[in-house]
Amino acid sequence: MQGPAIAGVVLVGVLALEGLGAWLRFSERSSLFAAAVARAKALGRPLVVIGDPDAGMHTRLARAYGCGDVCVDLNGCPLCPVAIAADITKPLPFAHNSVVVFVSCVFEYVNNVEAAYAELLRVAGSPENLFVVAVQPWTITAHLYPGASWAGHAVNGRVAFAPVPTWRKVVYGAGLVGLLGYATSPWWWPTSEPALAPAPTPSLEVPDAQLVSG
After folding, report:
1. Element (DSSP H or E) covering residue 160
2. Residue 101, Cβ density class (10 Å: 0-12 exposed, 13-18 middle, ≥19 buried)
3. How far is residue 134's CA from residue 174's CA, in Å, rounded to a whole number?
4. Burial of residue 58 (number of CB atoms within 10 Å: 0-12, 13-18, 19+)
5. Which of 73, 102, 142, 213 is such that its CA lies 20 to 30 A from the CA of 67?
6. Strand 100-104 relative to strand 83-85: parallel, antiparallel, unpaired?
7. pTM score > 0.85 for this model?
8. Cα 41 from chain centroid (whole Å)
9. Beta strand 158-163 with 100-104: parallel, antiparallel or unpaired?
10. Distance linking the first and last C-alpha atoms of the chain
11. Tens-digit pLDDT profile for the chain (214 aa)?
12. DSSP classification of residue 199
């Protein structure tokens, strides 16, 4: 198998893994949102959704979660009945231990993860009332999505995030572009066919030939 073909297979594998990550996030958003709705009903509390359900590239195609009772996003939630445009790193207009919170892939894009988590935990009261979906840290999305600054995990209402360094963004980006360029090089890189050696001229000599004269 030639080099560009191998690069193409690797690129397809990388994109397949990225697709798997997107599907897992969609599935987790759906299941955790359902759990958050059930928790809010059981406690008789409002459900606060952090992150516009229609803002992402994938969520525009198919919603994985709803607006809750109140939707909070830095840019607002235009399609939700009740929405607040707010920075979650600053005090939110909810009392301490008063709501159930669902967060969908938002911590990755805030400027201060600790402050955001502390504020959401304040209004939720405990990690049991905080449902968080995070972008898988091994995906391209976690490193190259516009505005992505953090990558990490979220488990049972608790989060662990670390900054995404610039060098890692460069490595991910350069690797992806390199694979794409090499895989498609046969279509855009000019190649020259090797020069063919001239065919030998056939010999007309006949060994031990005798000339016969009439």
Report:
1. strand 158-163
2. buried
3. 24
4. middle
5. 142
6. unpaired
7. no
8. 32
9. unpaired
10. 66
11. 588 888 888 889 988 999 998 899 999 999 999 999 999 999 999 999 999 999 866 666 678 999 999 999 999 999 999 999 999 999 999 999 999 999 999 999 999 999 999 999 999 999 999 999 999 999 998 889 888 999 999 999 999 999 999 898 899 899 899 888 888 887 777 665 555 556 666 655 555 555 454 5
12. P
DSSP string of 47-111?
EEEES-TT-STTTTTS-SS---SEEEETT--TTSSSEEE--TTS--SS-TT--EEEEES-GGGSS
Rounded CA-CA distance 54/64 in Å is 9
How many residues in total does the chain contain? 214
Please give the Cα distance from 99 to 96 (Å, whole number): 8
With contact defined as beta carbons under 8 Å apart, do 98 and 123 qualify? yes
Give the SS3 label for residue 155.
Answer: strand
Q: Which residue has the tokens 């060994």?
A: 207
- What the block records as the tokens of 204 is 């007309």
For the chain, how big is the Rg over CA atoms in Å?
A: 30
In eight-state DSSP terms, residue 18 is H
Tokens of 198: 């001239």
